[in-house]
Amino acid sequence: MNYNRMIRRVASAHMRKIAQEKPASVMFAEAVIDQRDILNWFQDQTGLDPEAMGWKIAAHHMTIEFFDKKAKKALKREGRAESNIIEPYADLIGQTVVLDLVGYAHDDKGMAVLVEPKGPLARLVTNKDPHITIATNGVGAKYSNELLAKGEIIPARGSIQARVGWKDARSGKDMYDLPWDFGQ
User: How far is the C-alpha of 72 from the C-alpha of 126, rounded, in Å?
Assistant: First the structure.
């Protein structure tokens, strides 16, 4: 074991003991947007106001990658912290990126905006149809994938800034720094 790694392990163990923190639990990598900005853009494009319609508003983020339990368990078998699953995104965490808004789709169950990530983020997105779920009506946000897969996308233009982060599965909070146990 090299010296720096040993120091990190000792320091991390000490920090964990002091803070009594559990290891980070990363649900997914995300590009978080300003909800009001995307809702205003969507209403300008469509004339639809999901808030006034009583729909459940999402309009929060574009999922970069959803991490399944299998990949997390593989890290644990290697003796590495689960938080290392965000390693490909380490340089982008906390950074502001631009998402081009290229189209939208809606039906009686959901509303979604199709996006095209720019720069280094573009190669990291795993979703077949990168999007922002605007709102849903009686279904979960996951329905946006089905809605966009139907192919009834109305072309549109725009862009929005987003901040790259990760969703903490324990607290449900958006995090914009690397997890404390990253690299272990």
Answer: 16
Type of residue at 80? R
Question: What is the distance between the alpha carbons of residues 135 and 39, in angstroms, rounded to a whole number?
Answer: 9
- Tally the C-alpha atoms within 13 A of residue 158's C-alpha that lie toward its C-beta: 20
Are 68 and 12 a contacting pair, CB within 8 Å? no
Cα 26 from Cα 75, distance rounded (Å): 12
The tens digit of pLDDT for each residue in 29-69 reads 999 999 999 999 999 999 999 999 999 999 999 999 998 88
Q: Are the CB atoms for 117 and 62 separated by under 8 Å?
A: yes
**What is the DSSP secondary-structure string of 139-178?**
S-TTHHHHHHHTT-PEEEEEEEEEEEEEEETTT--EE-S-
pTM reported for the whole predicted model: 0.83
**Tens digit of each residue's pLDDT (9 = 90 or more) over 144-174:** 999 999 989 999 999 999 999 999 988 899 9
